[in-house]
Design brief:
It contains 6 helices and 8 strands, in the order E-H-E-H-E-H-E-H-E-H-E-H-E-E. It has one domain: NAD(P)-binding Rossmann-like Domain (Rossmann fold), CATH 3.40.50.720. An 8-stranded mixed sheet has the order 3-2-1-4-5-6-7-8, with helices on both faces. The structure holds nicotinamide-adenine-dinucleotide. Nicotinamide-adenine-dinucleotide (NAD) binds next to helix 1. InterPro entries: NAD(P)-bd_dom_sf, SDR_fam.
């Protein structure tokens, strides 16, 4: 893995107060970045931002006004924007295949896992262009590459963002903006919740938030436009190659 030096750079992490987000914020700060932490959880965002001397921003990523306002605030208060990690996400919470559908819950899922990513990319790109390029990393999931029968609606949202990453990555490469996706399997966080019981059944190792932060570092160093990266314990990560 190449080394990453983010000294003098500014990063923004959505869902930065959650399990994976906290590890990512810490790693970005260790690499030298000033970090803005966006989350619904005001106390959590403040706590993690303070711990790295960063900026806490409270907002709901499903609101189309949030990402443009946050990007503007980051540029104003931290001077620039170089790295954006669109990481906030939620689980499906219902089957979504058997007739009964909680539409409000479904719309919220799409709002957080899909709309937020589109709003985030659209808001960030002009700011990244002002720096001559930058990196956008999206936390997708292994459920973006294979079907997860326990949560079809989550699978739908993560396939959507992997597809968007592929296309946006190609569309923005000429601007020096590299868009990539992280596709972890099960990670030991609050989001995993009850699904934690399943990881044995599908023979996947349980990853830690630190593994995802390690993979992020690899992706920032070596990720190519539109690539989706799979992650192993220890943070070892590699670009996913679809079967022939
Ligand atoms: P988490 O629940 O620990 O953290 C998610 C964070 O996002 C929380 O701090 C929460 O407050 C924030 N958030 C949720 N909705 C928001 C909104 N509308 N506006 C702003 N912030 C919001 O979950 P996590 O496991 O750290 O998940 C992070 C990402 O990793 C998600 O995109 C998730 O889909 C993905 N992921 C998780 C796993 C896993 O097994 N935990 C596996 C693969 C991918």
């Amino acid at each position: 893995m190449s080394t990453v030096d983010l000294t003098g750079r500014v990063a923004l992490v959505t869902g930065g107060a959650g399990g994976i987000g906290v590890a990512v914020v810490r790693r970005l700060a260790e690499l030298g970045a000033s970090v803005a932490v966006l989350d619904l959880d005001a106390a959590g965002a403040q706590r993690i931002a303070s711990s790295v001397g960063g900026l806490a921003v409270v907002g709901d990523v499903t609101d189309p006004a949030t990402m443009p306002a946050v990007v503007a605030q980051v540029e104003k208060e931290l001077g620039r924007l170089d790295v954006v990690h669109l990481n906030a996400g939620i689980g499906g919470g219902q089957a979504g295949v058997d007739g009964a559908l909680d539409v409000e819950r479904y719309r919220k899922l799409v709002g957080v896992n899909v709309d937020h990513v589109v709003y985030g990319v659209c808001a960030a790109v002009p700011a990244l262009r002002r720096q001559g390029g930058g990196k956008i990393v999206i936390t997708a999931s292994l459920a973006g590459l294979v079907g997860m029968p326990a949560d079809p609606l989550y699978t739908l949202t993560k396939h959507a963002v992997v597809g968007y990453t592929r296309a946006a990555g190609q569309a923005l490469a000429a601007d020096g903006i590299v868009v990539t996706a992280l596709c972890p399997g099960f990670v030991d966080t609050l989001l995993l919740g009850a699904a934690k019981e399943e990881f044995d059944a599908v023979s996947l190792p349980l990853l830690t938030p630190g593994d995802i932060a390690g993979a992020l570092e690899s992706v920032l160093a070596d990720g190519g436009p539109g690539e989706a990266w799979i992650i192993q314990p220890g943070g070892h990560a590699s670009a996913y190659r679809p079967p022939d």
